[in-house]
Protein: Acetate--CoA ligase family protein
Amino acid sequence: MTHRPTTPLAGISERSALHRLLDPRSIAIIGASTNPAKRGYQAIRALRDSGYAHPIYPVNPTATKILGVDVVASIDHLPYGVDIALIALPAAAVPRVLRECGAAGIPGAVVLANGFREIGPAGAQLDAELLSAIADSGVRVIGPNTSGVFNVETGANLVGLPGVPNGPISVITQSGNMLLSLVNDNRAVRGPGFHSYVGLGNQADVRYDECVTELAAQSGTGAMAIHSEGFVDGRAFLVAAADAATRKPLVLLRGGRSAIGGRTAMSHTGSIAGSDAVATAVLRQAGVELVDRSDELAVVAGALATTASVRPGRRVAILSDGGGHATLAADAMTARGIELAELSESTQAALRVLLGPTASVVDPVDVAGATDADPSIFADAVEILMKDPAVGLVLIVGLFGGYHLRFDRSFESVENDTATELLALSAEYDTPLLVQSCYANDKIRNHDRLRAGGVPVVASVDHAVRIAEALDRRRVRRSTAHRRTSFVLPAPAKPVATHPGALDEPKARALLEATGIDTGAWTFATTIDDVTAAVTEFACACAVKVVCSQVVHKSDVGGVRLDVVAATAAANAQRIIDTVTARVPDARIDGMVVTPMAERGVELLVGATRDPIFGPIVAFGTGGVLVDALEDVAFRAAPLTELEAHEMISETRAARLLDGYRHLPVVDRNALAEFLVRVGDVVAAHPEITELDLNPVIATGNSLVPVDVRIVIGPTVPVPMERNS
Amino acid sequence: MTHRPTTPLAGISERSALHRLLDPRSIAIIGASTNPAKRGYQAIRALRDSGYAHPIYPVNPTATKILGVDVVASIDHLPYGVDIALIALPAAAVPRVLRECGAAGIPGAVVLANGFREIGPAGAQLDAELLSAIADSGVRVIGPNTSGVFNVETGANLVGLPGVPNGPISVITQSGNMLLSLVNDNRAVRGPGFHSYVGLGNQADVRYDECVTELAAQSGTGAMAIHSEGFVDGRAFLVAAADAATRKPLVLLRGGRSAIGGRTAMSHTGSIAGSDAVATAVLRQAGVELVDRSDELAVVAGALATTASVRPGRRVAILSDGGGHATLAADAMTARGIELAELSESTQAALRVLLGPTASVVDPVDVAGATDADPSIFADAVEILMKDPAVGLVLIVGLFGGYHLRFDRSFESVENDTATELLALSAEYDTPLLVQSCYANDKIRNHDRLRAGGVPVVASVDHAVRIAEALDRRRVRRSTAHRRTSFVLPAPAKPVATHPGALDEPKARALLEATGIDTGAWTFATTIDDVTAAVTEFACACAVKVVCSQVVHKSDVGGVRLDVVAATAAANAQRIIDTVTARVPDARIDGMVVTPMAERGVELLVGATRDPIFGPIVAFGTGGVLVDALEDVAFRAAPLTELEAHEMISETRAARLLDGYRHLPVVDRNALAEFLVRVGDVVAAHPEITELDLNPVIATGNSLVPVDVRIVIGPTVPVPMERNS
Structure:
């Protein structure tokens, strides 16, 4: 007998299901327990201990009160429209419970149980039932196989972790232990604390992209710290991230980047990590700040949550109280490609007056002992630097804040006052400040004062420089946001082919030309006489290549003749026919492509693939026969903009070949960028193209001639997702 | 009037001056002061506070007692043969004082003052006087511009830093602040403490190489943490480090690696950092563990000081209590090139029984919740892993040690007992253990128990993996020590040339052949008839190249003709003469080199240079016209061994071309390694050769034919040291 609730919950929310999941104003605990060892008991305790002030509904058929809270006998006895359900029941019960939640008007559920896709074939059946229940009920599900969700501000602690400080970092991960690491790392560096936590587990329903969009809209979120082992729909994540990153910084640590790591991630959360090089490139393209080290996630996210970007058009100035740290900071900046500010002569003169004859007054500035007797000089030096129009961020390295520990206790009040003054300067000059101090791990009042004012204080030079890098990259992003892709794919154009497989070269060339990409002069000859006519018409040495669907590597079977002139054309064509038919007995020769021999130029690689996670991707790099050995290739998601094409070119070693390297001609970078944009537009509009290879493209001036054109059409059924890391 | 000491100090040491500097049993404070703000007062206080139990002699002309210690009026009133003098006087006084110390039988001095070479031209005069005084007096000097030296074990604290814990790490740096960072970093990670500290400052006399040798001989030093901005004699450092590293691990952080950092280092300690790529390669060749991050120096040195290498012939096993950390650890291992152990079937079966059906029993092993209710299961799992003959180190990642904080206080004693058991297992199976725990920054008894037993416990996955990498590299070094160079240069051979400048090609080829390096078939033709004769004799297509000292880039001025056959030889030779003389009016053509056209093969680069810091260096990489763009080059100090040549080859992308890449022939790696060893022997024995370039060398099978041979002879006067970073 189904109970029909007669009293809907007062003020049923207009908010979206996901909004209610991340900021619930009423919570049902399905599987509530009187046993303190059970999660269904601990969850209620955690909510109360965290100060959750909204209604809690423990659901249990036999108990009446748990921890003083009235128990509801079953889901259908709940008031209609509770915000979310925490399902603390074994996997097998979950599909049924979800359907009951749907009937009770609960829009969202957190499913803790494991035993679904992440355990492999044994969990497949239950996983299918879970997906059906989600579809049927309309309940939005976070999990399964999750540690829960947590809104620190409201105390909606469905993770059970005590003592998480309230602050601006919001976390999305697939690992509960990663949350523990972040909380402990944040505590160790005295970071700014947390706002929301979402443990996505297997992402059976709610995914990263939706959470990113939701958290970017929360006023309490200053920055997102994201740990992911894979995206279900990478393209959707790119779209959401690129949009969210214009408002809130996204910092991402990816697990499963290596082959072994990818396998581990699969057995952990059933996630597919995909190609690391592609993921790294396109996530950065979307404005996501990628960290390579797990110990940087809390530090960088904390800094981005509290600290402004480097000022537009300006650079970093280092202020050091010792040459050792100045040198290391400058090295680390260089290694990360961050330029230091060129200080004006008047700045240098002012620093010389302040700091005396032994100081270094170019960036990195080294006070060389000038602050030993009076740490307040730091504020004077910072003001001189912030006045310089070249300076967009000041990084102090060395001992600041610990002078009273190292030299003299009486410095304590001086350092406290200096910290206050530094905050005022940062505000007055609208210029962010970072501090590295080897005393940063101590509990020092002036450091905490700086942190509270949005100045990160860290012990590690490397962390400080890593933060500067992130703030500097945000400077670049902000000034170029309007020149970047939204990652939204256009509506598919009319397919260029319907049968899967490689197009023959004439079709491939014709396809590119139809989309406005010139492939240089060529003729498709179907008779030997046609070959001779084509070579005669080109009136220069030509390449003649067999067109034959049975041949994959043309030159391996004698299917290519070079430097063919009119007089030798017929003989060469006959030689191709003889050799190919001898070596490939079933070969059906469709004809031959005749092209003028390529001019001398820079050999480039231009290509495109359809990534199973992120969709259409453009590749660019050094072309020619060494391409596999060199692995000099940059990736971008298509469609891409000209700015992004230029950035892509600059990342490669091929870029060094473009400006007149040795005896090679100069290549027009604008023409090259435009070419890459067009290739991107083609693959973005043609989902049936799964592979496009132009290798080499011979580049001279603004001429870009693909010597070989290879296009592969995929099957019309969606390509199954495959690991390709 | 000079006072002659009549009472030499009892038991004058037989120990070397440097030994006495690093472990002084009597100390004179020159410039002792009654003013507590002065270093000459603080030094005495620091010695007393640090428990220094040997004689202290403050030297001051007016005072009688300082801090209760009897004052000596002048240096010549000291007992003869005090171990060391701390000179706390301004720079100008230092040369005179050193001479007085020498007369008083003091073998070593620590000079704190700055104002010498590090301030540039203004300090040059005083620097010269300092060097004279050192030479004249025979006193070994540490500094100037140093924070001092410190023997933590004896309390010989000449730095003034309080509270440095006694332990096995010995530090050599040029930055006093770096010592502060190391001490604070060590404290933050609850590391093992310090034994000796040497601040070398400007290295006017005592250098890194001597300190490394001295510290390696100290029983109290477990590992060295070295920070350097440059080596005065890099070759001496390589010799000393390679020898010391067989006994004690050396961990090195280099400052001044970038151009800006190098400039900063120069103004900090007058140091020359040199080429970063060369320094990185040769220091690693010497067995030095290089860290790229300042926040890794204390962590890695602390671990190497207390923890054994990965067992020979074995690999790393990861044991995790969560998939997130297992994945990240596996990724970080892969990124650092560390192989994980392949666990035997019986190991996997035993883990399955212990950990249940959801655990991952391949490396990385993930207990997947099996330890949540009983952390002692870690010890059982570790024992299973250590029994496996594939496992040479176990790395635990996740929460271990913090279960009592995360789950239940009652786990505290279980975790303490488990820690004890883990130490016993590590000893029983002679297998090192590392622990990463996100609770490592808390003060936890079981963690400290592990640390005291030589098991590093760290919070960062990256630090844990970095330690594993260092222990793994030590495994490799230990098993191959006998197959590596000592870096000792042979006595110079008879010079091959005395005039500086580039040798002409026939001389360069003859030189190589004289040393046993085949340069392929070639003839030096001095007439047109000789050219024809040579081409005729080779009976194949040939290359003809002009020999002319006025021509640097032969092909740019028409000095090279390819594919020359007998019939066209004379015309080609005449064409070369005509073109070159037309384009280079003052050209004096000495003749032409005729070689058979190179076969198709792999184009490699083999070269050698004389590094201003480290001496003769061999280079290897991808050759041909793209060489500058690709920058695919590995370096080794010469003379090098075959093993080192093989390692060098493997580091390059060129290595991918050697095993039959595309249509290229297979190259015999042994022949290539032997070739590199011979080139190394040549440049090691011929200091007059400053540059040797074979680019390309065409490699096919075991044939290695240099197409071009370029050798430059340096001036006979020593090359002035130059920055080349």
About this structure: The radius of gyration of chain B is 31 Å.
